[in-house]
Amino acid sequence: xxxxxxxxxxxxxxxxxxxxxxAREARWEITEKSDLSPVTQADLxxxxxxxxxxxxxxxxxxxxEEDALAPFKTRSEWGRYWLIDPLDGTREFIxxxxxxxxxxxxxxxxxxxxxxxxxxxxxxxxxGNHNATHGPVGSFKATDGNHHWQPLSARRLPAEPxxxxxxxxxxxxxxxxxxxxxELTGHSEAPTRMGSSxxxxxxxxxxxxxxxxxxxxxxxDTAAGQVVLEAAGGAVxxxxxxxxxxxxxxxxxxNPPFWAVADGHPSSFGFWQTLRRQST
Length: 280
Known about the structure:
This protein is α+β, with helices and mostly antiparallel strands. The protein has helices at about 5-25, 40-55, 70-75, 90-95, 170-185, 200-205, 220-230, 270-280; strands at about 30, 40, 60-65, 80-90, 100-110, 110-120, 125-130, 140-145, 150, 165, 190-195, 210-215, 235-240, 260.
């Protein structure tokens, strides 16, 4: 594995260890940011570790959930930058659900190019790489905090596609999607529910087929996981257009609604288009 990618993996693990150290403390505080989302010492500790180390790996600007966002006029001039969520799934962390992740992504010309996702509770480390100058292109997984990378390949569309959703998925929208899925395939089980970017990684592993996200997310929530999934053969598509989800294209850092699909092959797009049309 390229030295850049190995260093990013080690950095994500270091940030994850800081998160777990906070989790083991008897007492730690929860505060609210201006958007009313929670933040803990774990978020801030991981942010400090990652933001201090990234310039020594590739020295470009950094966007972090735990830092002030530069104006779009400034950001629009960045051809390349880091996009990080030091602790994705803070609510899961607070509730002691072992689903939270560390997200580190490198964005180039509006596209997520390299992505690292680390799940501290399970010590699973995921890498997606679209840039051949940084080592093997593809999606990989390492377990137990080591760097013994195993290639990942998302599965092709099966006869009975499975869903994975967030904990706060809108119930009416979910019901409509499941009805449409049942009409198309004759099958629709209740979705698995999970927080954070780990959902992209589970699609990349071939364990699920569709992660619909119609509620609000920010760009740092999705970029790293998107690379992991895309490099495994999947896709992350704007729900309205089924075009690939892009970055740094507008003043807002919020994503449009999207679908993450394990089978991103063009031959499957007809199915996704039909499902989208019948579920909206």
